[in-house]
Fold these 3 entries.
Entry 1:
Amino acid sequence: MVFRDKAPTDGESGGLKKSKKKQKRENAWRPEGPRDPFAMVSLSTDKKKEQQEIQKALHLFSLGTSLPKTLQQAKNHTYRFWDTQPVTKLGDHITTHGPVEEVDASIRNEPCLLPQGFSWDTLDLSSPIVLGELCHLLNENYMEEDDNTIRFNFSPEYLLWALQPPNWLLQWNLGVRVDANKKLVGFIAAVPADVRIYDTKKGLVQVKFLCVHKKLRLKRMTPVLIRELTRRVNQQGIYQAVYAAGTVLPTPISSCRYQRHRALNPRKLMEVNYPGLKQNMNLQRALKFNRLPEVTKIKGLRPMTKEDTPRILSLLEKNLSNFHLSPLLSLQEVEHWFLPKENVNDTYVLEADNGTLTDMVSFYAVSSRVLNHPVHTSLRAACLLYAVCNVTKMADLMQDTLVLAKAKGFDVFCALDVMDNMSFLEKLKFTISDKSVHYYLYNWKCPLMSPDKVPTLILQTVRVIGQRLGQCCAHSAVKTK
């Protein structure tokens, strides 16, 4: 494609000459000095020349076709990008363990190139201003329901919890800004994690909060973001990653149903048309169907304290050994992820007479804004993080958890059908989703895993993994040379 910097001459336009009035109208929007490539996206694209200039500013951000959501669709899809990456191919039968490709020691020192008008920025989240900018970007652009009625509303406290576990690195909080006005228009982060993949212990990263501004959505900013993050992760000697997507890529190590929902405040959920609820119920029936006890029935269930950390670690280590993909936690990490923080997360434990902890359950909070509603402005979801049952039945512990979450003002409780969650999901009236979420490992091959062998904790802050995040993850392993 040829881009022009000025209007075509009479000869180029076939002898048709524009009137001075029309030319003046076309030039009216042009600012003095360098143009802001991000602002250009907001311009009207009715005129051919304006379309060309927008394409010129952002032509490196073009994106191909959408990715398949099912294995059947994936069989007929050509993965031009993933065919060049160290991941297993769809249909391969893997029986061995180890890296798909040996480590390339040559890592470039210079940042990856961005199109003119954009610059990299390492976000210092200790600055309230920067943290506020990130909140604004995510809350306006991260993800929303298809009908544009519900949108995330991440708090600064939640983001610090999700992005600053022990051993986090500043350079892994990566942003993209517009040069002209310093507006934050892209973000991606990685946090370190030691995991056990079957019998192999491995240090890798979890990719989180991949977000591109709506004006640049479905553009090629995503692969550029991940390419630079990959380079920075490689500089620390880490070459594997874990991520999830709602689309099928080469190749899922495990797949499970999408988020299941259990209504805690059915009246409000029906009024805001919350997705996933049973559609054949009137309000009276919904209230009766989702009724919960007023109080918990497990005696001795109490909130976790800091002094419980060592005993919770011991309880987790024993339970996590049952899974094929599980985190290897330190005392500091247990304290960070599980110690209750107001409006961020909650953990409850059950203590035996001899002082040992036998059971525990933990969930975290994700708030959303309700848009264009005459009454409701917010929605609070509790998301299951982890549960261990040695003395009580899982269904009994989770019913008490629903009671506790409702008492704390949550409107809905969410869970995946991983671990042994199937033992309570249907019994406790969680709705069934027809969507799937897929788990992936980059540059690591191993046999496939059933959902009951993958704990929620491995991707504890990935609550909603839908089509747009799937598209983001489609380029999440761009190699750097």
Entry 2:
Amino acid sequence: MKRPVITDIRATTVTVPLEAPLRHSNGAHWGRFVRTIVEVETDVGLVGLGEMGGGGESAEAAFRALKPYLVGHDPFELEQLRFKICNPTASLYNNRTQMHAAIEFACLDIMGKFLGVPVYDLLGGKMRDAVGFASYLFFRLPNKETGAGEIRTADQLIDQALNLKKSHGFTAHKLKSGVFPPDYELEVYRALAKAVGTDSVRYDPNAAFTVEEAIRFAKGIEDLNNDYYEDPTWGLNGMRRVRENTHMPLATNTIVVNFEQLATNVLAPACDVILLDTTFWGGIRPCVKAAAVCETFQLGIAVHSSGELGIQLATMLHLGAVLPNLVFTGDAHYHQLVDDVIVGGPMRYVDGKIAVPTAPGLGVTLDRDKLGRYSDLYKSLGGYAYDRDPARPGWFSTVPNTRWADPADDRIVDY
């Protein structure tokens, strides 16, 4: 039977609303996610789906520019694809890792559809039928349209955590932080940990702290039921110094995102848990390879979230399904969204888990009406500056940061 070859690629940027703007140490998501949906066509009529964060006209043009690399390529030949698109020396002059990830997703989707099997069967077979997630909690600005959804105080954060636990069944809770002064966030985080009882918690200031502040903060939370302490400071050496001064495991999704960094971390440990992101690592298969290295050297792993819609969430689920050493729940922004671009709408949590799709390929189908609707919305609203906070005009982040938002500032922000 003739195998398919790629004939074309299409990229469509969409923006999908969030319940409310999500604040983080480097800025904010301004009430929506901007994602680029990729469709890879073949000569046998199969279309593979991929997804990449960010986008707009520049991303669509960048994917179109890769068409000469892809036309005629066999989607089963993924190692050749990797070197075609992101040869490590050629990539000194470009940054195609995340684009390669979206195309790899689509190729795996094509392969699974062609063979009539789900992607997890192409990766060694599933170890679990559903993947568990932590509630992903943020400080939030009010929704621009309704004025609802603000999270600035401990009580507001706890209300959301308990509501998510009730509706979705989460038993682990992650706070994305680094927005307000550390002492304020310490009080909020401790209140959250008390409110969720025996559930585990995790704190992620996105590398906003100095090494000394990171150590001081660690001393203030070591008695809690922490899964891990994520990216408290920047750099392998900084993380190593923090690790030497706490008994908590340290996790990262920022400073170990390729195999060179992973090797360095094995030789001189700075991080205990590697958060594997199917976009940041360049695809599902690199994450599987990295997980095997972590298994060999007894490093922990979890599935990381970079702001997914349903297509990338499917890649996270197939990844989580096949990893024997996955013991931590994953991250997902997914419950912060109000809609999705896949048929059937947003996937559902049951007991804190999402079932792994079992249909051939990634197991999700693009909803053409919603793709068009959210593409039009993107064209209407445009992008937003991820590294800016609409509540702090003129502010920009530094590493480490010393200029925090004011937790008493309850102004209505026009953004």
Entry 3:
Amino acid sequence: MLPRKSIIPEEFAFSPALVSPIPRKPVFRDRVNKARFIAKSGACNLSHKNIREQGRFLQDVVTTLVDLKWRFTLVIFSMTFLCSWLLFAMFWWLVAFAHGDLDTNRKPGVEQCFTNVNSFTSAFLFSIEVQVTIGFGGRMITEQCPTAITVLILQNIIGLIINAVMLGCIFMKTAQSHRRAETLIFSRYAVIAVRNNRLCFMIRVGDLRKSMIINAVVRLQVVRKTTTPEGEIIPIHQIDVQTESAVAGNSIFLLAPLIICHVIDKDSPLYDLSAMELQCSDLEVIVILEGVVETTGISTQARTSYVNEEIQWGHRFVPIVTEEEGVYSVDYSKFGNTVKVATPRCSARELDEKPSILIQTLQKSELSHQNSLRKRNSMRRNNSMRKSNSMRRNNSALAVPKVQFLTPEGGPNLAVT
């Protein structure tokens, strides 16, 4: 869900002076347009090429049919039934031809193997009636042809198998688990800020449906290109990232939108990254949400990823859950909204080595907050004084002037009208 713009109070504004007091050498690297491993929609950005053993896909026909696109699945569904009808129509026509039912000069006392099967078209219609059990009553098998009875049993068995497989594929395709994942949403941006005096990486997840995801588990992975000491290049090196609920197995109760927090400690792959180095890095943070759908009992998985441009340093998510008339209300229009907060620009390693950086940053933030409050109060007083002065001038302009009248004796007489 895309975040919407909102009016942010000035007391939450981020001061440009809130930077790390430790001088740090800028790190600049040529930024190359790196392909994402996981798209924002959760699709895997991976292309398979030069697969020589294509026959392995036919060993699991059901999974292959389910993975195909809908247009291919419908074509295969229709062609399977049509081919089976044509195949058995050929069998029925051969049986009728061998028995002599198609001979127009047959003797009048000889019983037929079929009734009203005189051509291939009628044999095709009879094949459809047998497999889909329509039974119009015009065409039927007699007891004079054991071969036809055998073909009838064989077509019924094969027809049931085709119905079970094809209808099962259609059901599995319509009830795929990723359909439920469409209503599991992630914040467009991830944030890095201080929480409980520790530098943390945070995202927000939510579920738009009222039916819950049971045993929801959130896993984070950092994917980056690394080189081993032996010189081996690993293009996709996956590093697991622990969250705050790691002790409980990352299980969450996804009743309302939650903020998933990863504490950047010494075991974190983000431990040595500062705000400037993060902008030049090529890492990608993958978020995986797994759980069981309450209504169907099918496991589902939702995925997304965040690259360096989508990680906001020095921000935190705004609250979206409020209590209104005894009911908790969630405002999804602010789901991805963030606000700037005082955050050191240094790495978590430097923050652990010199805790005074955090104290100085918080003190500067408090001072800036107080200055902003004084400025707002002074502006309010000035505005109120301007309004009062303006009202006084307007009242004086509306005052009634004095008019002088002359009496018949010529003396002045002052009167106010």
